[in-house]
Structures are given as C-alpha cells and as structure tokens.
Write a structure and sequence with these properties.
- The chain is α/β, with parallel strands linked by helices.
- It contains 19 helices and 10 strands.
- Helix 7 runs parallel beside helix 11.
- The termini are far apart.
C-alpha cells in the first residue's frame, strides 16, 4: 500500500477530507441499513433477540419520542441513505478534483525539473520518453490515485460492516473472515500478474513512443531511401509486445471476479446454514447476519478487484516519479547573483573540457571583443560547439574560467546572462505555427512591432510580407513550407527579437545555397557593431565578414586569418 501512503503525504488535507466523508458515509450506510433492517423484521412480528445495532437505534428513536413503527423506520432509512449519498458525493468530488490535480502536478513537476536540469541530462534522455511521460503516463498515474481512493473507500465500508457483523455474531463473522481471507490470498497471484503486466505495459509504451518520435523526426530520409519498412517492422514488434502485456492484464483482471463470485455465493450459503442450524440466532439476527456478511465479503472482494486495478496502473506513477527524481538529480547548480553586462567582451582562460577520456578542449585561451564578429572553424568533433556551450553556461569546464567583462561566469545571474543571448542552432527547428509565433515564441511581452523589427534586422521582412497571411502565415511542420534560407532568417529573427547582447550562430549557412548564404552574410554584416557575434562555420562567405577567425583542432585554438574589417 505504498502508493496510498505516498498520496496521503502528498495531498494530506484532501486525503483527510475524503477519508472523513467516506467514514461518515460508511457509518450511515452500515449502521442505518443493517439496524433498520433488523427493526423492520421486529416490527413485522419478530421482536425477540434484536441485535445490538438495532437496539441502539431503537433507543435513539425512543429518546426522540418516536415509536419504532413501520412509517418512521422507513423515513429514517430514506434519510440515512440520502445523507450517505451526499457524503459519498462529497468524497467522490474530492477524489475527482485530486485526480485532475495529480495529473497536473506530475506534468508540471516533470516539466520544471527537466527545464532546470543540466545540459548533460538532455544529451542522455530521449525526447520521446519525456513526451510519453508527460502525455500518456501522467494520465495513467492520475488513474492510479483514483484507484487508490476507491480501494480506501471500499476498505472503509468493509471494515464498518465487519464491526457491525461482529456485534451481531462474532462467531459467524470470524468464520466468514477466515474463509474469505484465505480465498483472497489464494487469488493474490492474479493481482500480482496484473501488476507485472501493467508495469510491463508502461515500459513498453515508453519504448514505443521514444522510437516513434525518432522515426518521425527522420521520416524524410527513410522514405527517400525506401527504408520505412524497417521502422515499420520494429514498431509492429513493439506494438505486439504491448498488446501481449495488455492481454495478460485483461485476463488477470477478468479472472478475478469470475472466480470470486461463485465462491462468495457458496460462502453465503454456508453462513446461512450455520447461522440457522448451529448458532440459534433469531430471525432478525439471522437476516442481519446474512445481510452484513454478504456486504462484508462483497466489499472485500471489491477491495481486491480495485486493488488489482491500482497495482496495474501504479507502474505509470512510479515511472513518472522516477523520471522527475532523475531530472531533479541533474539540476543545474545555483548561480551567482551578479547582474551581467557585455560592454568590453568575453575572455576564456585555460579552458579544459573532456567527455570521459576524450579531451576536447585543452588549455584554450580566447578573447571575444564586444561588438565584433568572432568566427570559429575546425573539423567536426574539434570542440567548437562545446566551447560555445561553455560560454552559454550549458557546460562547465573541468579547468579554466570564462569571464564576462572581467566577472567569472559562475558569479553571474545565470538566467539574466542567458536572457542576454540570442542563439541560432545548426538545425533550424520551427514550430508548426505562424511566423509571428515562431519569432516571439508566445512571449506576451513581445508585440507584432517587435517581431517586425527583428525580421527586418534578419533580412526576412520582405519575404514575410509576401506570404499569404503575412506574419500570421503558418510555416508548416518544422517550417516545411519555407525554403532553407527563409527558415534560417526566421531563426535569426527569433534570436534577435528580445534584443540580446550576444548573438551565437552555429553553422548558420551550412545547409543554404549560394544566394541564401549571401543573404545571411549580408544580414550579419549589418548586425556587426550592434551585437557581439560568435559564429561557427565552415563556409568562406561568413569568414569574409568576420573580425577574427580562429581555428580549433586537437583541443587547441589558433588564429586562422588576419583580422578583417
């Protein structure tokens, strides 16, 4: 029952209110119905030997000046059922609200933990796994809370009826509990099987969504080479594995009531025989015993069924909880509080960085003057992007330091520093949304005028105004309705819209034709002096407009060309 305890700690007040409402509803249901049933038997002519609950209700009615006749008894029964229904409604409403809250809290917790994590976390965590956790697994985890609450509700009812049954005939009740408990233990294997199948289903679904995400991101080259059948084969195999796990879960779930119901009927018949033939109970007591024991065993079987539902969905909760804990363990360290500025430049001193045994940067010294365009060139894997990531603060060097206007980077307010950066990645990824949304990213502080300014600076305004809906034109999936050069200039506008101090460009012209490359080059030339620019490139067109060009290879940095102006 670790899940129930965990939810109770996470939502103490909601859980307490739910428990109180369920407890009162159970008391009204159990005491009211069982006692009033016995009283109806008494009113009908068998007043001898009333069980204790009925005697208590009789005394309560007498204190109110009400005779134990048929009419007031029926009225009291209806009132008890109405009060029980209202309390159950209140409890179920709390459960419903909390189910929605659990799903929302889990999604937000994972999103915030992921966004606050180190860059290394993103490098090792599949995007598809995170997408699956936030969308599908969060819903299943919320259902785990619902099932847990149902287990609690049924358990409260079962315990109340057990207490009442003990008051009527403790001998019959103990026999019924022993036999019923033995049967439940015997069927525990079906519960464990459902739990294993549910956990397996969560694991397989995460693997499927992860692989599917990767396939859809690379579907164009797969189709171009006629290799989509390979992805289809893997996806089919994974889907069939999920289907197999689901079948096992369904079989275990349906087998439980199929076995429970006939056993429960047999037990009720045995209980009736013992109560009449051997215990010598009155007719009223016999009817109450049968009624209570049927309720007790019925509720305990429902508890086991609902518990089976809970354990089959709790795997999703623990998977999501582990994902949150993993992301939190990879959180970025606290940053300093110094407000950043960039009036003189950025200085790198003796930087050393290695991925395991592979040294990427080894004693790198570099000065990036403010207002100039500094370009890094070098072979793939030489450390160009790693150096840029260190400047941004995504990676921390094992040795050396980065200073911004003479202030060490760790001493700066990290978020304020990154807000001063405009970043254009090598792979230009646009949202399946309008040009405006792709430039502003939905920032409410940015206006259409800000988007126009940035698009003009990026040399994109002319082609944007020619689009069918201008700024409101959808760009398609990953910007597929635009050319490579157009996508790149929108990405530059996105980096410029919040007026950064430092503009970083990672291979901004690598996938462009000569005309588009020339347009981007002219854009960067116009931006020089306004911004500090740091670029990575292999293309000579960008080198022509650079103020300094540096070559990186073997972990070392050297000047690649004389300064040009």
């Amino acid at each position: 029952m670790r899940l129930l305890v965990h939810f109770a700690r996470a939502y103490p007040w909601r859980s307490l209110l739910t428990l109180l409402a369920l407890l009162l509803a159970g008391l009204l249901d159990g005491v009211g119905l069982s006692s009033l049933l016995a009283m109806l038997v008494s009113v009908a002519g068998d007043g001898a030997g009333l069980p204790l609950p009925a005697r208590q209700v009789t005394q309560f009615l007498a204190a109110l000046g009400i005779a134990p006749r048929l009419e007031p008894v029926l009225v009291l029964m209806v009132l008890a059922m109405l009060a029980k229904a209202l309390l159950t409604l209140a409890a179920n409403a709390q459960v419903g609200y909390t189910v929605a809250l659990v799903g929302t809290d889990l999604r937000l917790a994972l999103l915030r933990a992921v966004l606050a994590s180190r860059w290394e976390y993103y490098l090792r965590t599949p995007v598809g796994a995170l997408s699956n956790a936030i969308s599908g697994e969060a819903n299943r985890a919320a259902n785990a809370y619902f099932n847990a609450a149902q287990v609690l509700a049924l358990l409260v009812q079962a315990l109340i009826y057990t207490a009442l049954a003990l008051l009527v005939s403790w001998q019959a009740t103990l026999v019924a509990l022993v036999v019923g408990g033995t049967l439940m233990l015997a069927m525990g294997g079906l519960v464990r099987r459902a739990k294993r199948a549910g956990t397996r289903q969560s694991q397989l679904t995460a693997a499927l969504v992860t692989y599917l995400t990767d396939v859809l991101q690379s579907v164009k080259p797969l189709k171009a080479m006629g290799r989509e059948d390979l992805a289809d084969g893997i996806l089919t195999r994974q889907t069939r594995q999920i289907d197999k796990a689901l079948r096992r879960q369904v079989i275990a779930k349906e087998a439980l009531p199929a076995v429970q119901d006939p056993l429960l009927a047999s037990l009720a018949a045995v209980g009736l025989y013992l109560a009449i033939a051997h215990l010598g109970l009155s007719l009223a007591s016999v009817m109450v015993v049968i009624f209570l024991l049927a309720r007790v065993l019925g509720y305990f079987t429902k508890v086991q069924r609902q518990y089976q539902n809970m354990v089959s969905t709790e795997g999703a909760y623990w998977l999501l909880k582990n994902a949150i804990d993993d992301a939190r363990a990879a959180a970025e360290p606290p940053s300093g509080g110094v407000a950043p500025g960039l009036t003189r430049g950025i200085e790198l001193r003796g930087l050393r960085f290695a991925y395991g045994e592979r040294v990427v940067l080894d004693g790198v010294d570099l000065t990036i003057p403010a207002g100039r365009l500094t370009t890094l060139i070098g072979p793939s894997g030489a450390g160009k992007t790693t150096l840029v990531d260190i400047v941004i603060g995504l990676l921390s060097p094992q040795a050396g330091e980065v200073l911004v206007d003479g202030v060490p980077l760790p001493a700066l307010d990290r978020r304020a520093w990154r807000r001063m950066i405009g970043y254009v990645p090598q792979d230009t990824l646009l949202l399946h949304d309008s040009v405006l949304a792709n430039v502003t990213l939905g920032d409410p502080a940015l206006t259409r005028a800000d988007a126009e300014r940035a698009l003009r600076q990026a040399g994109a305004w002319e082609f944007v105004t020619a689009l069918p809906q201008g700024l409101d034109t959808p760009v398609g999936e990953r910007g597929g309705k635009l050319s490579g050069g157009q996508r790149q200039r929108i990405a530059i506008a996105r980096a410029l819209v919040h007026e950064p101090k430092l503009l970083i460009l990672d291979e901004p012209t690598s996938a462009l034709d000569a005309a588009a490359e020339a347009a981007v080059r002219d854009t960067l030339r116009a931006l020089k002096g306004r911004y500090t620019l740091l670029a990575i490139t292999h293309r000579p067109a960008l080198l022509d407009v650079s103020d300094q060009v540096l070559h990186i290879a073997g972990g070392k940095l050297r000047a690649a060309a004389a300064e040009v102006h």
